[in-house]
Amino acid sequence: MLELTLQALFSGLLAGGYYATVAVGLALVFGTMRVINLAHGELVLLAAYVAYAAETNYGINPVMAIPVALVIVGAASALVYALLSRIHQDREINSLILTFGLGIILTNAILSIWAADIHSTSNAWFQDSVVVADTLFAMNAEVASFVGGLVLMAGVWWWLNHSWQGRAVRALSSNRAAATLMGVNPRKIEILSFLIAALLATFAGFAIYTGKTVFPALGHVLTVKAFIITVLAGMGSIPGVLIGAVMIGVIESLTVTYLSASLQELAGMILFLVVLFVSPSGLFGGGRALAR
Amino acid sequence: MTRQTRTQKLAHLVTVSALALSVALGVGAAQAKEFLLGSELPLTGSLARVGQGMQEGIAVAIEMANKAHAGKHSFKVETIDDETSPAKAVAAVEKLVGDGVVAITGGYGSNIIGPASEAAQKAGLVYITSGGVAPELTQRGYPTFFRINNTDGYALAMIGLLQEIGAKKVSIVYLNKDATSSLAKQVGQALTAKGVTVGTHEFDGSTSDFKPLINKVKLQDRPDAIAMVGYENDYVGILRAAKVLKPTVKAMVGVWSLATAQMAKEFPDLMENVYGTSMLPYPVEFTQPEAVEFAATYKTLFNKDPDYLGQFGYVQTRLLIDAVLRADEAGTLAKGGLPEELRKTDAKTLIGRVTFDKSGDNPNFTHRMGQHQGGKVVLVWPKDDANGKMNFPAVPW
Prior knowledge:
The structure holds two protein chains of two kinds.
Chain A (H helix, E strand, L loop, with lengths): L1 H32 L6 H19 L7 H19 L6 H24 L9 H4 L1 E4 L3 E4 H23 L1 H11 L1 H6 L4 H26 L6 H16 L4 H21 L5 H15 L14
Antiparallel strand pairs in A: 1-2
Helix pairs in contact in A: 1-6, 1-9, 1-10, 1-11, 2-3, 2-4, 2-9, 2-10, 3-9, 6-7, 6-9, 7-9, 10-11, 10-12, 11-12
Chain B lengths: L2 H29 L1 E9 L6 H21 L4 E9 L4 H13 L4 E3 L4 H13 L3 E4 L5 H5 L5 E3 L3 H14 L4 E7 L2 H16 L3 E7 L7 H11 L3 E5 L2 H14 L5 E3 L7 H6 L1 H4 L3 E3 L11 H14 L5 H23 L7 H6 L2 E4 L2 E4 L13 E5 L2 E6 L16
Helix pairs in contact in B: 2-12, 2-13, 3-4, 6-7, 8-9
């Protein structure tokens, strides 16, 4: 029983790290622009497919393809921003419609280019086991993604708290008009947020390609999961995203172990509803929560 | 005979010949018909991969039929993407009915085929498929619904293999969809009746980390074999988790979408020694003339070897085309005679003998089991159809 519980907690922790990596880009963009980018999952997927293309066509280790993917996903993210910035009325609802549409376009572009087959890395190292004390098991890809994700999130958190641009993002998140009066250029800061989100999406894409499987319909699933975690965390809270994601990962994993794997999504949603019932603005919400 | 008479006779001959030729051509033109078939398939969404596979088989059947009946009849197919959505599948069927198709071939996923075939039934249109094996589909008793495969055929193959390897304890890990749940239940009940200890574990389609589940199987069930009932994505997740946790099993056994060329190429390390249902070995060995032509046409159209989805899509469409031609010849096509003609089907096909019972099911359907061995898929069960020896006990790790 103890072995089962420990493995469930370990798997849940790693799954939480993976969920957080996917969700944090969405949270950052929301924190800056009050826009929910429903194409975020598709951007993550695009990065995964770039890794696949690099590995299959050129035999490149997926990690080495990160710079190329960053350029492509960054360009796609900048395009999303360019289109979003043209919305001047009912920004929140219209941005939802726009990004949802862009997500569909990206999914179908991926489907057209790479077909509907499932893919994952063929690099054996990522699939090799990590065994801790003969009790805890994981793949190298999962551990590497978890550690890399933590480092990236810590970097984003530090950037938001200690750099001028990071403070400008937070200022913009708190009060756009006041921040503008204080000399912050909203357009520059917003596009910077989108590019940072693209960096996070690129890393998440590589984590998925090396540790899971990718297929064109996955983008929407990722967006939904990221959205749930972002709301659970408190819209825009970066540390909250990590904690919320780990909570979801652990509750899902414990449900699989002690109840049924078919109930894991339900368990995650019950947790989500309970948290919102107790704290309607999420775990770390309560207003403009970026970086808190 | 005067010159004038000869000229008159020649003119008469030319006129008669021209008339005869025009009548012949006219009659020929009246007999030559173009038949429009409809196809509703998931070409996008989570079932896009299988939908596209079936679409390729349908395209091959149309191509071969047009070649075989060139100058007499021609066939076209109008395809609508149901986006892996039951509601859109119903709308697609209604659109196809409006466009005047003679019948529908396609559909994937029992939960999608259910409402789509119901819409076809309401319109009195034949719906033939190989993409839905849930027993409930034929239990409805719709006279216009036909399928060439079913849960029984897959279950028999899985049970047969598990018995042949002498498994005393089996853990069944299955996806909580209609078809997969039915199959898992059927396999579980049959094995239990034969004295095998069975543990069942249901999972959701959103599951991407199977380690907690496989750890439970490893530490609590301790089976001889793990039976997997799901789709490609699920198999990869289960096998990866098993490769990490290394449960002491002797065999990893799955069903559809597993013992395929695609999986052998995409996941060579993960697939070694894994079993799955397969009609054909890989590389494909075709001997019958129809099968050779099918493979050649498939290669020409898609520049790759055919897989099981293509085979099933081809067979269902070929049978439909045959029935359409018979009904047309009998003059019953426009009078709703197609279901009756399909029910008269008794054909040897790429997937074996096909007949249809009253409910539209194919009672002859039985599958074979293949095993991944060194990048190939070797048929290992039943013995009569095997083209190689089984690696047992053997797992991918």
